Amino acid sequence: MPLIPILLSFAFCLFHPISGNAEIVDRIVATVDQNIITLSELNEEGHAYFQAIMQNVPTQQLESEMQKARKEVLDQLIERLLIQQQADKFDMKISEEDIDITIDSILMENNISIADFRHDLQTRGTSEDVYRQKVRSNMLRSRLINFLIRSKIVISEEKIQNYYNKYYANKLSASGYHILQMGFLWGDKYKVKTQEEARQNAEYARKKLLEGEDFATLAKNLSDLPSAEDGGDIGTFEEKELAAYMRDTILAMQPGETTPIIQTPVGFQILKLLSSNKDNSQPLPFNEVHDEIKTLLFRQEMEKSYDQWISDIRASSYIKHNL
Question: Taking a C-beta distance cutoff of 8 angstroms, is the pair 268, 262 a contact?
Answer without folding.
Answer: yes
